[in-house]
Amino acid sequence: MDIYGITDLHGRFPSRIREMRDKIDVLIVSGDITHFGEGLEVIEKLAELSDYMEVLCVPGNCDNLEVVDLLEEYKLNVDGRVKKIGNYNFVGIGGSNETPFNTPLEFSEEDLYDKGKKLCKGLKNIILITHAPPYGTMLDLVGEKHVGSKAIRKIIEEENVIFNACGHIHECRGIDKIGKTIIVNPSPKSFFVYQPSKRVVILEDYIGL
């Protein structure tokens, strides 16, 4: 299974993904698909890809309720859901922990934790799709401050999470680990390719960005 992942589109659809559609089994979109509701046509383009692959999206903190409704309409939204594909359980937790900017989809750490724990209970081989990165990694640094979600980190530490696809912090493109769990933030500049059977993940920059 070849799993590709993108994040923080902010209304811009990466044409490179469409060009590679025959290679992709599952496409993960880790939020901020639009920019506060601007660029809704990106969701229609993602829906077109669902004829070729599984497309699994969560909204980000900069996506509003109109975005959530459209993701629901096109059956792309996995926020608050579990989608089993092959031997893997894809679990979605959208939005982010609280920020200083009062964006549309922010939640308390307690709410994020309770939501994730209920979803992950009893599952194995979890591929966790979040917008917010887990706290205390190389993927949640703004300057020297960690701003990721402590709830997401705790879920990773407590549950059978083998992989976490996240985004949110644009300047933190990279791959990190919590224990044996691989964590990837491709940022707006890149996409990732993950082969769970081989435990291999790579990042590849978009051409021209």
Largest sheet strand order: 4-5-8-11-13-12
Protein structure class: alpha/beta
Report the uncertain regions.
none
Mean pLDDT: 97
Order of helices and strands: EHEHEHEEEEHEEEHEEEEE
Alpha carbon gap, first and last residue: 27 Å
Query: What share of residues is helical?
Result: 10-25%
Shape: globular
Radius of gyration: 15 Å
Biggest β-sheet description: 6 strands, mixed
- As a percent range, the share of strand residues is 25-35%
Number of strands: 15
* Total of helices: 5
Question: Which key terms come to mind for this protein?
Answer:
single chain, 209 residues, alpha/beta, six-stranded mixed β-sheet, 31% strand
Description:
By secondary structure, the chain is of the alpha/beta class. It is built from 5 helices and 15 strands. Strands 4-5-8-11-13-12 form a 6-stranded mixed β-sheet, covered by helices on one side. Strand 9 and strand 10 form a beta hairpin. The chain starts with a strand and ends with a strand. The relative contact order is 0.16. The model has no long low-confidence stretch (mean pLDDT 97).
Layout of secondary structure:
Elements: E1 3-6, H1 15-19, E2 26-30, H2 41-49, E3 54-58, H3 65-73, E4 82-85, E5 88-93, E6 96-97, E7 106-107, H4 109-120, E8 126-130, E9 141-142, E10 145-146, H5 150-158, E11 161-165, E12 174-178, E13 181-185, E14 190-195, E15 200-205
Helix pairs in contact: 4-5
Q: Can I get a quick summary?
A:
The protein is α/β, with parallel strands linked by helices and 209 residues long. 21% of the residues lie in helices and 31% in strands. Strands 4-5-8-11-13-12 form a six-stranded mixed β-sheet, with helices on one face.
